[in-house]
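S., here's the first fold you wanted:
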Amino acid sequence: MSFNVDAAGKTNFIAAGSVDRPVAGEEAAGDGMRQTLNLNFSPENREKIRKALDDYAKSVDQDHDRIEERRRAMQESLKERFLDADNDNDGTIDRQEATEKLPQIARLFSQVDTNQDGVISLEELQDAQSRAAERRSAAEAAIEAQKLQATDASAATKSKSKQASNNSKKRTY
């Protein structure tokens, strides 16, 4: 199995072994991420992929400074928007404040308000942002995995076709 990784404006080709079928009971025992992704990678191949991505990330940004800088900037931006929306300065955003200043959050208010107390705290908003990022990453990984599986299946079909063609040529001689 191989895939392209884009980071910091550079594209690298990474090979990480082949796709295997799930180990018995792995999906049931796996964490939510594995269940969400619903991938057919063996534990060994998942570890190879993680290592390849870690190695690549370290080669591009050895100390992860850029990643951490972006993460801090996003957190700071989120905090600023939260504080701007908190009209009564009580440290929370109610449905009205969200509707006025954060319409995207207002549409998802019940999902963001995880403790269902009628207000959103900064922590709840940060958790919601993290969950959304995880879902995006999982969806992107699932799409990439489907592309890889389709490519592998296509290659296997071509190989079988070529093998059958070679076998039929041998019979004609």
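And the second, which I think is the more interesting of the pair:
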Amino acid sequence: MIATLRTTRTRAVSAGLLAATAALLSACQDNPEPVAPTADPSASIVAGPGILCWPYCTAAFNRVAFVRTLTDGGIQNTEIYSMYADGTGETRLTYNVESDGQPVFSPDRSKIAFVSYRTGKSELFVMNADGSNVKQLTSHAVQVTGPAWSPDGTRIAFTSSHVTPYGIFVINADGTGEKLLTNNYDNQPSFSPDGTKLVFVSSRGVTHQQHVFTMNADGTNQVQITPGYSGWQEMMPHWSPDGQRVVFVWYSYNDSMIYSMFANGDLNSLKMLVNSAKKDTYPSWSPDGSKIVFTSSRDATYPYYRNTIYTANADGSGQTRISPLTSTNSQSFWGR
């Protein structure tokens, strides 16, 4: 199956990301697709312009958070924005001279956890969904990345190089109770919808290649679920709202594409969702699991390198650009 994949060119995840993720920025099987939660379709209401938010009937559940690269006085900076999933209602949320990024909505959509360099090092912050009431949660003075909310909104998992090797911590949403879960070159956590497990990326092993693992929420029972083929790596996992599947980026040197598979590691469930012959990264599920959002470089034109944000159905069909071609946008996030 791997031999049929098309070759693309990789790029670094971000200049400051941990060494294990520094290599990338930015024949499918007939298997069951994620199933949306059961609800009464009559409860559907319009969320944004022309968008139904069933079964999550508030406009907030149809907003996507993302990062835009801005240039001010010749200096590049990244700021956090949000918009409806059809590309309308774009709103800037952060205004800071240092870079802000990696935004993730809380489960009730009232808050956003994010990473900022405003203290000189990347630290974990939270703010209201409208950008107000910014609060710093960590003071590691090293490298903090990859926040992920627990499904009840009380905890946030994140990666830090505060320990060696770097690893995954969890902290209460008010900044108390910080705890180390695992530190074996581990990063990019995402909670299961019932909060009992985490999916994450690890570069453990002699080759330090990245592969996707699951573990209990207390850090025990760590199991690799992706195949770990030689020369291939996996990253940026996100657990589906129904708990069945994990979406992730699969890459090898010049290839970068989006796959999903059953969270139990069943290799027969591997399914290619996005392969545009460009760099497709940062996938996450919509809150109801019917769609994904992702970042793509398919619209990049010389001499500018501009990522854009796309949505697609959960099976990869219906890929639609929702961010403008006139700006560089990345680090897209929709669901929890």
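Why I say that: Residues 1-57 have pLDDT under 50 and may be disordered. The CA atoms of residues 11 and 226 lie 22 Å apart.

Talk tomorrow,
H.
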